[in-house]
Specification:
Elements lengths: L4 E5 L3 H12 L3 E5 L3 H23 L25 H17 L1 E3 L2 H5 L4 E4 L5 H11 L8 E4 L19 E6 L8 E5 L6 H13 L3 E4 L9 H17 L5 H12 L5 H8 L1 H8 L11 H14 L16
Helix pairs in contact: 1-2, 1-3, 2-3, 7-9, 7-11, 10-11
Length: about 325
Amino acid sequence: MEFKKIVVVGGGILGSQIAYQTAYKGFDVTVWLRSEGSIDRAKPKFARWHEIYLHDLEAVKPLIGTESRLYPRGLIDDFKSLTTEKIDQLKAQADRAYESLHFELDMAKAMADADLVIESLSEDPKAKIAFYQQMAPVLPEKTIVVTNTSTLLPSMFAEYTGRPEKYLALHFANEIWKNNTAEVMGHPGTDQKYYDEIVAFAQQIGMIPLKLKKEQPGYILNSLLVPFLNAAQALLANEVADPETIDLTWVLATGAPAGPFRILDIVGLDTAYNIVIMDPAAKDPDSTKGKIARLLKNYIDAGKKGAAFGEGFYKYK
């Protein structure tokens, strides 16, 4: 199938990035949201991505003709043949993407003639199931549905979509215009034809598809990343060290560009909180998981939800 109309469900940190990146690559993108308030909260995120795309593209100009690998890989397909004129064309492309986005509250209108729906709701199984049950009756027969869930398995939700053979997971890393990975993971009932079409779509929007052979909670990336972030949060929750010291330790000892709390700010503390409370141990306030949940909740309640909100464990301009 040649994808044309893409619907992104959810305007959170990753949902908004996925929608904007997809529009940047020339697709007709509609963002379905639940309320006018959701639209009002989502629009500043899209404005932020627009500014970042323009800034990061302009910052590539001094790198032209070098062997640098520091360019935003999701925005530039062919760095070797890049010119300043092409960068200006890409900036104009980013402008068109920002102006072309559609926001819709009516689900039937949003889903009409959709080739692909990308669900990027919070990590709440009940909410996802309710959404799929509401969406299934209004979807065109042709539509493929993917979930961007970070930790849950597509087999948990396949039957509720009404098209299990056309349902699978497509997981993006944060800051997708730079960290351009797309993990593709089916469930036992996914038809290989649709799996392959999603792999091709990932390439079309500037991602490097990473093909998983079987279901794995957390895919590849989060199977590695979540235990690392949990260990850092445990150090803080148990008052072993502060975020700055923990980050400094990791950066100095490994040469990594960022420590775990910088990463948590990028991921968003809402997401981190939703992941930790899925562990039954988090119900015990005296357990390490319980302490982590309380710590994150305190930051969230104070409005310190991460980099996209101006402050998390660190302050951002």
